[in-house]
Amino acid sequence: MKKVGIIGAGIAGLTCGYRLVQKGIPVVIFEKKVIVGGRIPFAGAVATERFHPRLISLIKELGLEALKVPLSKTEQGFFTSDGQLLELRQFQMASMKQLGLKGAMYFMKLNRFVNRVRFDVNNFDPRLVKIRNISFEEYLKDCPEIVRKIVVEPMMLFTFGADLSQLSAEYGLTHIRLGNELGSGKAFTFEENNIATVTNVLDAKLKEEGTQIFTSAEVKKINKQGDKFTIVYEKEGEKTEEVDTVVLAVPLDEVKRIFPELNLESDVDYRDSKCIFVEGKLRWPGKKFIVGMPGNPANLRALFNVVPYSQLVYPMDETKEVDLERLYEEYKIVDEEEIKPALPIIGPNTKVPELTTKMKGVYLCGDFYYYPWLETSVATAEKVADLISKEG
User: Is there a single domain that holds both residue 214 and residue 259?
Assistant: First the structure.
């Protein structure tokens, strides 16, 4: 039986491993961090089933439905540029009043389109493919300034890039749809471990099947030797593992570093961020998800409630401190972590590689195949598992 080596134990790597093991194919997984999950511990919420169908299907399959914690509209807020916190409904009403007739008409047209197109990495919507090579700036050439300021720019907060000329139109529209879905009242998270609940359960199920998952094991390089691959990794000294197939479930710049022989052609850009772990009493009881508007005085990008009195806080400008005094009645900083990378950025004309590489026996999966990133990670992982199974 052929053995598959998976590099990266984020949601993509673990999902791919889980599907392969279900098909009777043995795997070994390598993760450079101390724990599995990759960037999943920094994720805030799962959107609706319309937007995250494969992810939610996996959640149901893992028996996690009962552990879901809904993210209602009353639990979401917007920290405005003048330092006020508006509930989602208040913010929506205030925004619509400011748009005016022309702005409202444009916004409704934009929303109709973005809510009807299909964001699916395995079944591309031709309407999105058509605009993949133009910038979001060009797509919005007729957008009234008031719509950009009130609607578009706030929804671009999670792109970690304010320059819309550097984002593909498809990428920009995905984030507008994501904002709509998260604000629908149907989004959810999990208590205590957030979305990491999913990767923790995948990790446990794989280990129950006898799968080796090496954590604190940084892959240094991959060598091709005939029909086999040798994975060289560091874990209490340099070690090697021979496999028949390789799945790279790590950022593409990491792929290029550890496997230059693959000659991967991609110019996907990556952005870093920072996360502050805070325990304290928020000034607004009951709020689980707060988005900071551009120019807000606290320098807040977003705040996610993990457990009661424990939050993940992201700065708008990573070079400056978040003014936590404006957000909390009392607090303490538990930890801070640089997230490198936070997200891949898909710009116009970006070269995004295929799941099947030019080298036989080597596959790619992860969050860099168009968006939304959680859904894309699961979708590409499952597709790669199917491809490996079919090729025997």
Answer: yes
Range of the domain at 289: 72-186+270-345
d(CA 266, CA 256): 9
Q: CA 175, CA 122: separation in Å to the nearest integer? A: 19
pLDDT of residue 161: 66
- Do residues 312 and 341 lie in contact, with contact meaning Cβ atoms separated by under 8 Å? no
* Tally: H helices and E strands in the chain: 11, 17
pLDDT at res. 191: 76
**What CATH number does the domain containing 50 carry?**
3.50.50.60
Measured from the Cβ of residue 23, the count of other Cβ atoms closer than 10 Å reads: 11
C-alpha 306/C-alpha 281 separation (Å) is 13
Number of domains in the chain: 2
pLDDT tens-digit readout, 270-310: 888 899 999 999 999 889 889 998 889 999 999 988 676 78
Does residue 264 sit in the same domain as residue 385? yes
Predicted local confidence at residue 369, as pLDDT: 83
Q: Using one digit for the tens of pLDDT, what is the confidence trace for 317-362?
A: 889 999 999 999 999 999 999 988 888 989 999 999 999 999 999 9
Task: Identify whether residues 8 and 112 lie together within a single domain.
Answer: no
pLDDT for the residue numbered 41: 86
Q: How many residues are there in the chain?
A: 392
SS3 of 210-226: the string is CCEEECCCEEEEEEEEC
Contact between 23 and 379 under an 8 Å Cβ cutoff? The reply is no
Same domain, 95 and 180: yes
Coil, strand, or helix at residue 176?
helix
Instruction: Share the mean pLDDT of the chain.
Output: 92
Are 214 and 28 in contact by the 8 Å Cβ rule? The answer is: yes
Query: What is the model's pLDDT at position 55?
Result: 96
b/e sequence 105-119, b meaning 16+ C-beta within 10 Å: ebbeebeeebeebeb
CB environment 128-158: b (16+ within 10 A), e (fewer): beebbeebbbebbeebbebbbbbbbebbbbb
